[in-house]
User: What shape does this take?
Amino acid sequence: MKVTRNVILDLLPMYLAGEVSADTRALVEAYQEKDPEFASVAKDLADSDLPKDIPIPLKKEDQMEAYREAKRLMFQRTLVKAIVICVVFLGTMGFMAVVWFGAHRALN
Assistant: This one.
């Protein structure tokens, strides 16, 4: 299989971050030797100020912890909404009762 420039471009960010295997590193470096124009682009990118806080994929345990935390927060939000709805409903019913008893008393 022929390794194209697009394949090397796909690998370049991980290569520059030092997150590739030795085989991939050798592949990218061999391609740079064949293509000096690409090598200069890669060098320019390596010399540029890339962000250092690029997020890495979460481990399964971290994913589960994030899921549990999101689930807990959603439950709290739902509970608060239910309480607010109940308070508004009971307040409305109380107001209606006061109005009804006031109107009933005024008629008597």
Notes: The chain has a mean pLDDT of 88.
